[in-house]
Amino acid sequence: MNNERTLDATDARILLALDADPRATVVALAERLGLSRNTVQARVARMEQGSALGPFERRVVPKALGYPLTAFITAQVDQHRLAEVSQALAGLAEVVEVFGLSGETDLLVRVVATDAEDLYRIAGQILAVPGIERTTTALAMRELVPHRVTPLLRHAAASR
Questions:
Q1: To pair with 22 at 20 to 30 A between CA atoms, which of 29, 56, 120, 140?
Q2: Cα–Cα–Cα angle for 130, 133, 134, nearest 5°?
């Protein structure tokens, strides 16, 4: 059972305002949205404590840190070692996301690299993780639709 509270239209409006101005104060948000300061402060605090707001690091672009290449590595895993594999992947700095999948492939691992040789090294480290049986690497050539939730927020904000 999912115990997470679904965001309502007011929450979505607050998040849209924060997306437009991430440094806005609670008072500025309240004025902009026509809400009380206490309402905005309580809702933002609840969203920060829950899982509605992700970490700030999501905004940092790996390219700015010297990692211009992005690749996706799919992996087939010994299911009995999934926790061990996950922990090992989390220990690799160049692994920025890992998703468990349904279907023939077990994991989708998003990695960043400095160049092709670095990507080869990283792919080798991943393949060497005990419990990983097979990998396939695909280089991301271009990001066509960046990570976004603004359209979802607009839809939720309009559902008043």
A1: 140
A2: 130
Amino acid letter for position 138: A
pTM confidence score: 0.83
Q: Give the list of residues 6+ apart from residue 91 with CB closer than 8 angstroms, or none.
A: none
Q: Which residues pair with 139 in a beta bridge?
A: 71
Give the Cβ contact number of residue 18 at 10 Å: 17
Nearest by Cα to 26 from 10, 38, 9, 8: 38
**Distance from C-alpha of 115 to C-alpha of 137, rounded to nearest angstrom:** 14
CA 152 to CA 37: how far, in whole Å? 25
- pLDDT tens per residue, range 16-73: 999 899 899 999 999 999 999 999 999 999 998 887 887 777 788 999 999 999 999 9
Cross-strand pairs, 108: 74, 99
The helix, strand and coil proportions of the chain, stated in percent and rounded to the nearest 5, come to 45, 20, 35
What tokens appear for 42 in the block? 């309580």
- The answer to whether residues 98 and 86 touch, using CB atoms and an 8 Å cutoff, is yes
Length of the chain equals: 160
Question: How far, in Å, CA of 140 to CA of 147, rounded?
Answer: 14
